[in-house]
Design a protein that fits this description.
- The chain has eight helices and twelve strands.
- By secondary structure, it is α+β, with helices and mostly antiparallel strands.
- The protein has a single domain, classed as Extracellular Endonuclease, subunit A (Extracellular Endonuclease, Chain A), CATH 3.40.570.10.
- It has an eight-stranded mixed beta sheet with strand order 1-2-3-4-7-10-11-12. A two-stranded antiparallel sheet has the order 5-6.
């Protein structure tokens, strides 16, 4: 058999092409999440006292191939700007963007999109069964707890991105059960009015076409800790931010980590309020004029009515 040969000019071109390709791959792989600082004084004073050394490291490493996020719309709407002193590792899963805090060992927040197509698939007969999935540790994320560290703590493993929204896909379902998506929640809260908010969002996505949903804890000083080493923070409150790009409207909810005495609609608030409580900046990709208007509204009547079963 006669082997093919290449001229020195051809081999040189191949070498240059290969070098450029490797450089592009290395640059792409090293890009991190988008974290921007805030000057909110009341929040900044908390983060200065949150850690012994008064500092936290911004770790923006992306996860390995296979966990990239595939968006059907503007991916930048899932970007959340966090306070500079808040520790963070941004993790891009298939359907979730997790902003994880290794000091508190819980997510700062979790962002995802929910489309009407996803919801229809999640509600179909062929949807993934929650009973087939287990909580797992993500070994690629520093500080991620193991599932058993919540045992006998008195708290449930509360999904920030609920499993009901991920039943449309096996990978999405499995990744929402990773402990990077979990916070300690009292069962009375997790299975109470908080669940009714989650169900309402699920229903809203059917008519909205596409929703941006961002959920997370609200940190405070002297939080209770659980776990083997008593280092998993137990937030006293949680927030959920919802934005509908098609209708150009938004709403948010804030609930305490306990049994809530009133209907879920009573806990509706503005995104501005959540930003003041957390120091986060949501929906910064929008035009400032649009962002300022929608983040100041909280009218639950603008959203389709939902009556949860009690």
């Amino acid at each position: 058999m006669q082997l093919s040969t290449h001229s020195p000019q051809t081999m040189k071109k191949h070498l240059i092409y290969s070098t450029l390709l490797i450089a592009v791959m290395m640059f792409t792989g090293c890009r991190g999440g988008n974290e921007r600082g805030t000057d909110a004084a009341q929040v900044d004073s908390f983060y200065k006292s949150a850690y012994d050394d008064g500092k936290a490291v911004q770790n923006q490493d992306r996860q390995q191939e296979g966990k990239e996020y595939k968006s059907t719309g503007d991916l930048s709407l899932l970007d959340v700007a966090l306070p500079e002193r808040l520790d963070n590792q941004t993790v891009h899963y298939k359907s979730l963007v997790v902003y994880f805090n290794k000091y508190y060992r819980v997510p700062n927040c979790v962002a995802y999109e929910l489309t009407s197509t996803m919801t229809a698939m999640a509600d179909s007969r062929d949807a993934e069964n929650r009973a087939n999935y287990k909580f797992e540790k993500d070994h690629d994320v520093k500080g991620c707890p193991d599932w058993w560290e919540y045992k006998e703590s008195g708290y449930t493993r509360g999904h920030m991105a609920p499993a009901m929204d991920m039943r449309w896909d096996k990978t999405a379902m499995a990744q929402c059960f990773l402990m990077t998506n979990i916070c300690p929640q009292l069962d009375e809260m997790n299975d109470g009015e908080w669940r009714h908010v989650e169900e309402a969002v699920h229903k809203w996505s059917r008519t909205a076409g596409r929703l941006i949903v961002i959920t997370g804890p609200i940190f405070s000083n002297n939080m209770k800790r659980i776990g083997k080493h008593q280092d998993i923070a137990v937030p006293e409150r949680f927030f959920k931010v919802i934005y509908s790009p098609k209708q150009n409207r938004a709403i948010a909810f804030v609930m305490e980590n306990k049994k809530m005495p009133n209907s879920w609609t009573n806990y509706a608030t503005t995104i501005d309020k959540v930003e003041a409580l957390t120091g986060y900046d949501f929906l910064a990709a929008l035009d400032d004029n649009v962002e300022n208007v929608i983040e100041s509204k909280q009218n639950i009547k603008d959203w389709p009515k939902y009556y949860p079963s009690r």
